[in-house]
Amino acid sequence: MAKEIQLRPKVNVSSYIHFLLNYRNKFKEQQPSIYLGFQEFSRKCSEKWRSISKHEKAKYEALAKLDKARYQEEMMNYVGKKKKRRKRDPHAPRRPPSSFLLFCQEHYAQLKKENPDWSVVQVAKASGKMWSAKADIEKQPYEQRAAALRAKYHEELKVYHAQRKARKNSLQGLAKNQRRRSGQAKSDKAGGSN
């Protein structure tokens, strides 16, 4: 039995969009031969929307509330497709930290010591403010260190890709040899039984 594909619920629309759809249908019925461009039609709709009474707008707002309730209910029952995260190769080199992250690593302990009741988020915000307040000259040592780490990372990445390619080629070669051997063994058995 095949799995039933569950489509994501259609997003709720605003009161203005409900009005727009209704107005478009009425306009097509009343004047089927007239074609208005998107821009002109949108301008006409927005003028009409501003001119309608609050009582009439309330009707569209009620539709929007019902639509929102429908959407929320459907979303509660909707089981989304789980995205599979690609597993990181443990042999792959780790990406280097940016200059800002190097700065944060250096100042985290100091900020946490001065403000022990702060959460990680608060410390990160304070680090961000400190980083923004620094002049470009003060940021330069961190940027130089980050550039050196980035260069080292790219070198390690080249080596990693070369090793990975060699490993892949050797595995493909082994698989070919095994297929060839098993093919020869089959032909030997077939030839020997005659």
UniProtKB/TrEMBL annotation:
Positions of region (Disordered): 162-194
DNA-binding region(s), residue ranges: 9-79, 93-161
Entry's Gene Ontology molecular function annotations: DNA binding
Subcellular compartments: Chromosome; Nucleus
InterPro entries the UniProt entry points to: HMG_box_dom, HMG_box_dom_sf, HMGB
Keywords assigned: Chromosome, DNA-binding, Nucleus, Repeat
One Gene Ontology cellular component: chromosome
Domain HMG box, residue spans: 9-79, 93-161
An example Gene Ontology biological process: regulation of transcription by RNA polymerase II
CDD domains according to UniProt: HMG-box_HMGB_rpt1, HMG-box_HMGB_rpt2
UniProt key word Transmembrane: no
Signal sequence coordinates: none
Protein family (similarity comment): Belongs to the HMGB family.
Protein name, per record: High mobility group protein B4
Species this protein is from: Pteropus vampyrus (Large flying fox)
Gene: HMGB4
